## 1
Amino acid sequence: MNLTSLDIVTLMFFVTVWVSYTQFARIRARSTYSLSYILRQLRIDWMTTLTRKEHQIADAALLGNVERTVTFFASSTVLVLAGVLTLLASADKVVVVLQSLPLTADTSTDKVQFKLAVLALIFVFAFFKFTWAIRQFGFVSVLLGAAPQYRSTEFTDAQREVFARQSAKVIDQAGHEYNNGLRAYYFALAFLTWFLHPVLFVVSTVIVVSVLYRREYRSRVLRALLATKGLEPGRIKQQESEQESEREAQ
C-alpha cells in the first residue's frame, strides 16, 4: 500500500479534529449553555418529578422509546459493518467505479481496502458506543423500579434529591454515549469523501464539525430548550457554574 503524503496528512487531520472536538465539547459544556447542559438539567427535573409521583408507567414508556431508538442504531451499525466488509472482498470493483467518477484522485485496490478497513473501525467504535448506551439505559430501568414511592415515609427530601440527581447522571452518561455513537456516523460521512479526493476529505471534515458545533451551541432547538428555564444561549453565569460543580462533586 502506497499512501501519499497528502493521504497521511488528511487522515491525521481527520483523527485529530474528531478527538479534539470531542474534548472541546466536553470542556465547553461546563462554561457555555449547550444541548448537553440543558438536557442534564431537564433530566434532573424529570427524575425529581418521578420521585414525587405515585406511578412511573409513563416514565418507563418514555425510557423505552429512547432505548429502542438506540437499539435501532446499534442494529443498523451491524448491517453497515456487514456491507463494508462485503466491499472489502470486492475492492477491485470499487476501484473501477471510483476511477469512472470525475475529480477522483488516483487510487488502487490496496488503498481502497485500507480505507474500507478504517471505515469499518469507525462503525465498530459506533457499535460499542451504542451498546454501552443501551446497557446504561437498562440500568436506568432498574433505578425506576427502585425509585422512592410517592407515599413512602422511609425517604427524606434530601434522600429523594440525591436519588434523582444520581439517576439523572446515569441517564446523562447514557445520552453522552448515544451522542458519541451518532457523532461517529457524522464523521463516517465525511470519511466517505476520502475515497474521492483527500482535499474533499478535509473540507467535509470541517463541514461536519461546523454542523455539530452549530447544533450543539447555536441551534433553534437549543434556544427553545433553554427558554423553558428562562435562559438564552451564551456563557453560563459564574454562580450557576459553581453550583453545578458542587453538585457534580457530591
Note: The radius of gyration is 22 Å.
## 2
Amino acid sequence: MSNDPVSTDPVSADPAPTTIRSLTVLPAHREDVELHTADGLTLVGELALPLGPDGRPTTPTATLVTLHPLPTHGGYMDSHVYRKAAWRLPALAGMAVLRFNTRGTTSPRGTSEGAFDGGTAEQLDVAAAIELAEFRDLPRRWLVGWSFGTELALMHGRDPSIEGAILLSPPLHRATDADLDAWAAFGKPLVVLVPELDDYLRPDEARQRFARVPQAEVIGVDGAKHLWVGEPALRRVLDEIVGHVLPGRAPLPTTWDGPSETAPSAVAPAAAPSTAAQEPTDERGDVEEDA
C-alpha cells in the first residue's frame, strides 16, 4: 500500500487510457523501510517495487537509490522528482525506487535520527542506503542524486556494487576536483543533467568541470531550471534516467491502461532555516503542474 495519501474514488470502468499527469499514482508495492547507519542512527525511507501479474512484488529490472536535495533548504525524500519517480517507474519501467531522509531530515514519512552534517557524516547515510539495497537483493543499483544529493553521490557513492550515477542539477559546491578525479578512476558511468537556466552550474561550465571524468556524459536541458518544475521537465528527467539505466526503454509512455489513483497536492513541512550560502531557497520543487 502506498504511504502517500491518495484518493479513494473507485477506478473508472472506462477502458480508455489515462493520461499520466503530475499527481498520477500508478500501481506498485510501497513499504516503509528503515536504514541503519554505522554510527547507530535510524533513517526513515520508502521502497517502491514493481508488481507482477499476480499483484505481488516482483524482481525489479533495476534499482534507483535516490539522494535528495539540501535539507536545510527544504530538500527531503519527497522532493517532487523522487516522489513522482516512485509513483511511476515501478509500473512504467519495472524499476525499484528507494527514497530516504538523510540524517536530521523530516518529511511526511517521519524524521531520520541525527543532525545535518553538511555532507560529511552523510557518507554513512549513503552507505546505509546501498547496504539496504544489497540486503534486499535489489538488482542493478544506480545512484540518482539531485543538487546536494549529487555532492553525496560524487563524494561518497563509489561503491563497487553501484553500476553508475545520474546527477540532476549538480552545483559542485562541496564536491571537489579530487572527487571528480576519484570518480574518473572509479570508471563507472556518470550521467549529468544540467538545466540550461540553472542557478548554480550551467551546461557550458558543467562540461568544463566534468571534463576530468572521461566517462561522464553531460546533457544540457534547454529551458529547464534547477528544480525541474513542470511536467515536461519531469518527464525529461525520468526519460533520461530510464534511457541510461535501461537502454531502449525510453521514452516512457504518457498514458496508462490500468488502474491508477490521484494524489492530493503535496503539503510539505516548512523548510529549516538556511545555513549555507549560495544554495537554492527551496529544493522541494513541490509545485504541481502539468504545463
Note: The longest strand covers residues 29-36.
